[in-house]
Amino acid sequence: MSHVLVIGNGAAGTFSSWLLARKGWKVTMVGRGTPGAALSTGCLRSVPSACRGEISEFLDNEHMPWAAGEREGASRIGTSFRCWMSPSHTTWADDEKPKSIAVAGLEGHPSLQVRVASALLNERGVRAEPFMLPGSVPSDVPLTSWFRNDEAWEELAEDLQRSSAEAILLPAIVHLHEYPRLDRLERRCGRRVLEAVTPLGAPGQRLADLMLSKAREVGTAVWDGRKASALEVQASEVRGATVIGGSEARHVATDAVVIATGGPLVDGLVLDGRKIMDPFGRFQTVRRGDALRGGYHCTNGKLISTDGRVMTNTVGAGDCLSAERREYGSGLTEALESAYRAVRALEEA
Length: 349
Fold this sequence. Notes:
Number of strands: 21
CATH superfamily of the largest domain: FAD/NAD(P)-binding domain
Strand order of the largest sheet: 10-2-1-14-21-20-19
Radius of gyration: 22 Å
Number of domains: 2
CATH topology of the largest domain: FAD/NAD(P)-binding domain
Strand content: 25-35%
CATH architecture of the largest domain: 3-Layer(bba) Sandwich
CATH class of the largest domain: Alpha Beta
């Protein structure tokens, strides 16, 4: 069995790990820090041009069902959010648009701007009204830690029954394994329950947790909190890596490598002024004018060494690769498609 080292624990790293493990590879994935997926809205805004079935299967989860197609939701300030795929309580189909929404939140808590969101929804033709929940939560306390027991959810259901609206828009308040609480809440209060689209919060962390669990399910060895600090290169191949974590350093022999470390914002590539640099000092990078579009130079998915050789067993995936342009809101879809192409490149090697 061939052994592949996947460097990076974000969307591209976990998806490539999942694909390779299902194809019979022995996969070790190393990563540390917060992946970009955890900072996202937890939705896929753009439609994949390839591997749509694989992406849907990868994201399939017993706790959190997904909906796909032309979808629309509301952000935590009430602006429209359109996407291709989202968790079931985040968006609605065009023919399911609610006629009235109660925007529910806690006074002074930033998780959902109740009055602003209500005003903007009304401007969009949805009858909306602020619905202040009783109680108070400090503004720096995430609501996921507040709604953690059955008593709190029962009180929430009783409060929401007072609304006459067709649907309720709530802040993002559940982790992955607690997502079924939204289904039970919907049945209990007799109204459709929607969750505000929220970046930098629970939805992105749910997605990151889901992807990591799927990689583990198929046998990926996940070395969390560790980083590949150096690569052993022989001719046109990477044959090993030094992996560090805390005070421990370990050498890992490998038959192939997937580098999916992300861009300079998430402990991936190094940004030196306006220059993008490879932290391993082994591969060519391209600046592309805008640092956020710069990254590793590759050909057919394979990285290129600093002396111009195409690496036969080393591919790149995700935001660490150079891109002529990055479409707003398409980052997750692009990362997953990039991982799919990287795996195909390894198979063809």
